[in-house]
Design goal:
Layout (H helix, E strand, L loop, with lengths): L1 H8 L1 H20 L1 E14 L4 E15 L4 E8 L10 E10 L4 E8 L4 H4 L12 H6 L4 E10 L7 E7 L14 E11 L2 E12 L5 E14 L2 E12 L2 E13 L4 E11 L9 E13 L2 E12 L2 E13 L1
Antiparallel strand pairs: 1-2, 1-16, 2-3, 3-4, 4-5, 5-6, 6-7, 7-8, 8-9, 9-10, 10-11, 11-12, 12-13, 13-14, 14-15, 15-16
Length: 316
């Protein structure tokens, strides 16, 4: 008995460690793995403070295990909510089956247009206020089923069942949160969609959380037009907002943008609605390097604020 125990404490551990290494090597040989991520260097000036920052740094891996199975992981290295500014963002498996698509793990659930767009593909530096306030947190743990139908108007359907507590958090009750997005194209280059979020959140207090949105996107070079409307209810508090963005490619490398967005955090209160104009100019230095400059003018009640931001984004 003593000898057997010593085997598991010494040689047994070495055996299983060796088996793990062999499996890892075999996995690497059969899997195409690539780095995936981006970082952003910002300069901001609001008239009172002028500063350079590394506003975002995301690092991850993605790979094809087989033709039908892919994975992706990512860490957010500038997260103020994680220890040492480090937070697990994505860790999911994609399963591309014959009749539908499955995604399982921690991922960015699809609710509206801007939330469903990868952060490094957004045209303006800052998201619309309604998206920042009503879609948070942006990641959760769950399962997504998706299907693109070969039918007139090219319909697409995305349905998720998630914990509803946010990234890296377990569920604290029996209820689950449901998220859905439906898209269709009534005309060429035009896509319309509706989305919903039905669930609850326990932190900091238990609150029923519902969202409903509509979206539109028209994109045909050199013109881009998009917008969405989103309403939310957290128990008895109601809020809403919307935005409209127009972009025009002056050249293949230069994109000029203008956005108007509105957000009312509580419809029961007066004089708290914020309106903002954003004007932007993007210059594509390389296919994965973009220089951006945005000016924002925000009005809320009797206050007007201006913000100038320039940014270099590098994708890899």
């Amino acid at each position: 008995m003593f000898k057997l125990k010593n085997f598991w404490l010494s040689g047994g551990r070495l055996f299983w460690a060796g088996m793990f290494l062999l499996l890892a090597v075999r996995f690497m040989e059969c899997t195409e793995i690539k780095p995936a991520g981006f970082f952003r260097i910002d300069y901001c000036n609001d008239g009172q403070l002028s500063t350079l920052t590394i506003s975002q740094m995301r690092l991850g891996l993605k790979g094809n295990i087989t033709e039908k199975y892919q994975f992706q992981t990512s860490l957010e290295l500038t997260s103020t909510s994680g220890p040492n500014n480090l937070m697990l963002y994505d860790a999911y498996l994609n399963m591309d089956w014959k009749y539908f698509f499955l995604r399982a793990g921690q991922y960015k659930y699809r609710l509206g247009l801007e939330q469903s767009t990868a952060d490094d593909n957004l045209e303006l530096i800052n998201k619309a206020a309604v998206v920042l306030n009503l879609i948070s947190p942006t990641r959760d743990i769950g399962l997504e089923v998706a299907k693109k139908f070969s039918l007139p108007f090219s319909p697409e359907l995305y349905l998720s069942v998630i914990n509803g507590e946010g990234a890296n958090k377990i569920d604290v009750n029996q209820a689950k949160t449901f998220v859905g997005r439906f898209l269709f194209a009534p005309l060429k280059d035009i896509q319309l969609g509706i989305s919903f979020y039905d669930g609850s959140v326990s932190s900091p207090t238990a609150v029923n959380k519902d969202r409903l949105g509509a979206e539109l996107k028209y994109e045909k070079y050199p013109l881009l037009v998009k917008g969405e409307y989103l309403t939310g209810q957290d128990d008895s508090r109601r809020s809403y907002g919307y935005y409209g963005t127009c972009g025009y490619n002056l050249t293949k490398e230069i994109l000029a943008l203008a956005r108007y967005d509105v957000f009312d955090p509580d419809t029961a209160k007066s004089a708290d609605t914020a309106e903002r104009w954003t004007f932007g100019l993007n210059y594509l230095l390389d296919k994965d390097i973009v220089l951006q400059a945005d000016y924002e003018n925000k009005q809320q009640s009797t206050t007007t604020d201006g913000l100038l931001t320039t940014q270099i984004q590098v994708k890899f």
